[in-house]
Automatic annotation (TrEMBL):
Protein name, UniProt field: Lysine histidine transporter-like 8
Domain Amino acid transporter transmembrane: 95-506
Transmembrane feature ranges: 102-124, 130-154, 174-197, 245-266, 286-303, 334-355, 375-399, 420-441, 447-469, 481-506
Membrane-protein topology: Multi-pass membrane protein
MF GO annotations: symporter activity
Keyword Membrane: yes
Organism encoding this protein: Senna tora
Function: Carrier protein involved in proton-driven auxin influx. Mediates the formation of auxin gradient from developing leaves (site of auxin biosynthesis) to tips by contributing to the loading of auxin in vascular tissues and facilitating acropetal (base to tip) auxin transport within inner tissues of the root apex, and basipetal (tip to base) auxin transport within outer tissues of the root apex. May be involved in lateral roots and nodules formation.
GO cellular component: endomembrane system
Main subcellular location of this protein, as a coarse class: membrane
Organism classification: Eukaryota, Viridiplantae, Streptophyta, Embryophyta, Tracheophyta
Length: 518
């Protein structure tokens, strides 16, 4: 019998060699991927660098893996976060999603400015009105996509605020000079205009509900401003941007509802006599040109909210596999579909119903002036009440960047988060500052053309410049020419629309129309 060595092992049948799935590493080389047994144990770039894995390994191997973790942070697998962001209202909570993005964008994108679009059509006419509105909508949708993509353009860095992105693109000082004024003007100016619109609408709502035979002593306009400001301050005590998602949903629903009600009520009732669709003519060609520029500024002002895009996206979690720009773009597409369904019918239906008889106050003023006796008081009251709810909701989201700036200054000096009393004090102070500005300048809500011209670069120009300076497309390529052209066109339109807005303000007598308490 054959003798075998004692050290010989029992032979085992060879198993077929299985190919290991591969993935591309950040450097472009191929690397084997661990087998995915369960979804909860799926391999991630840093799953092998946990403390549980590092504990039994000696110092040299541990140093290699720690260095690998640092490399993954540099290429963007892990985003380095500023610890101060956990104390600030915009970045305090990062559990947002596509639904929240849709609510916030819709609440910020539809508001009282939509009701002024028929006023612009009265000076532009059918063709130029529809053409300018369509071009502006497509243009701002493109710049919205740019901002969403630039939120994490640099690996490992999130630009959580519009000002941060401007500083990254234009430099620290120039970015502040270019972006600080228009963004603050958009936030604070819109908040003041909302106080004026909301207070005046509350007064009309009370008059409609109380009726002509009401014997109660009504509040003055300034007192209604104060009532609206007080309600806004109470709602502003919600701590962060994610916490007002419910308010943004209310604002979005009310905006869609009253926009639809306003144009439906206008087109279903008889049109006023002597109506004409010819653009309003003014005595001199220069006056007509300035009025057209002011009307285009009103169209530009209808597309606000880009100063909040990065802030909304900052409320979302972001990982290498699930970047924040994916749910943000989904929510933004839904929101801007509904924004189009509000703006275009209001502009076209309002101009069809009132033509060049459209009063300068917009659709609500026209509805109350021409159909207050044709429409039931309950329907009119409901329309005005929805406008009030929308103004209260919009006040919160437009004020959040200002609250964030206040608290950022406080936390950077004290190196600690704001207490509830400090946070409340900031918001009460901000609310009443806007109230006093509204009382001193009660015509601010009528300066839509000027506001649109001054803030137009935030929406139409700066994002194009930022894309070229940060993404650095090939010089003299179509992408390079396209964005530079759009950016400089936006700057030119901003200057022209601002001049038209100033001319309209002066010639309409607004400079003498200071508020007189009734």
């Amino acid at each position: 019998m054959d003798e075998r060595p004692e050290t010989e092992l029992i032979s085992i049948p060879a198993t077929p060699r299985m190919s290991t799935p591969e993935i591309l590493t950040p450097s472009g080389q191929r690397s084997p991927r661990a087998k995915e047994a369960k979804s909860s144990n799926a391999w991630t770039p840093t799953s092998l660098i946990s403390p549980r894995f590092l504990s039994p390994i000696g110092t040299p191997m541990k140093r290699v893996l720690v260095n690998m973790k640092g490399y993954l942070e540099e290429v963007g697998h892990l985003t380095k976060l500023n610890p101060q962001d956990a104390w600030l209202p915009i970045t305090e909570s990062r559990n947002g999603n596509a639904h929240y993005a849709a609510f916030h964008n819709l609440n910020a994108g539809v508001g009282f400015q939509a009701l002024l679009l028929p006023v612009a059509f009265a000076y532009l006419g059918w063709s130029w009105g529809i053409l300018s509105l369509t071009i502006a909508y497509c243009w701002q949708l493109y710049t919205l996509w740019i901002l969403i993509q630039l939120h994490e353009a640099v690996p490992g860095k999130r630009y959580n605020r519009y000002l941060e992105l401007a500083q990254a693109a234009f430099g620290e000082r120039l970015g502040v000079w270019l972006a600080l004024f228009p963004t603050v003007y958009l936030s604070a100016g819109t908040a003041t205009a909302l106080i004026l619109i909301g207070g005046e609408t509350m007064k009309l709502f009370f008059q409609i509900v109380c009726g002509p035979t009401c014997t109660s002593n009504p509040l003055t306009t300034v007192e209604w401003y104060l009532v609206f400001t007080s309600l806004s301050i109470v709602l502003s005590q919600l701590p962060n941007l994610n916490s007002i998602a419910g308010l943004s949903l209310v604002g979005a629903v009310t905006a869609i509802t009253y926009s639809t009600m306003v144009w439906l009520l206008s087109v279903t009732h008889s049109r006023p006599p002597s109506l004409s669709y010819q653009p309003l003519s003014l005595p001199s060609p220069s006056a007509s040109a300035f009025s057209v520029l002011n009307a285009l500024g009103i169209v530009a002002f209808a597309f606000r909210g880009h100063n909040l895009v990065l802030e909304i996206q900052a409320t979302m979690p972001s990982t290498f596999k699930h970047p924040a720009h994916v749910p943000m773009w989904k929510g933004a597409k839904v929101a801007y579909f509904f924004i189009a369904m509000c703006l275009f019918p209001v502009a076209i239906g309002g101009f069809w119903a009132y033509g060049n008889l459209m009063p300068s106050g917009g659709m609500l003023t026209a509805l109350y002036a021409f159909h207050s006796h044709d429409i039931s008081r309950a329907v009119l009251a409901l329309t005005f009440l929805l406008v009030v709810f929308n103004c209260l909701s919009s006040f919160q989201i437009y004020s959040m960047p200002v609250f964030d700036s206040f608290e950022a200054g406080y936390t950077s000096r004290t190196n600690r988060p704001c207490s509830i009393w400090v946070r409340s004090g900031f918001r009460v102070f901000y609310g009443f500052v806007n109230f006093f500005i509204g009382v001193a300048l009660p015509f601010l809500s009528s300066l839509a053309g000027l506001l649109g011209g001054l803030t137009l670069p935030v929406t139409f120009a700066y994002p194009c410049f930022m894309w070229v300076l940060i993404k650095k497309p090939t010089k003299y390529s179509f992408n390079w020419y396209f964005n530079w052209t759009l950016g400089w066109l936006g700057i030119g339109f901003s200057l022209a629309f601002s001049i038209g807005g100033v001319w309209s303000m002066v010639n309409s007598g607004l400079k003498f129309k200071f508020f007189k308490p009734n």
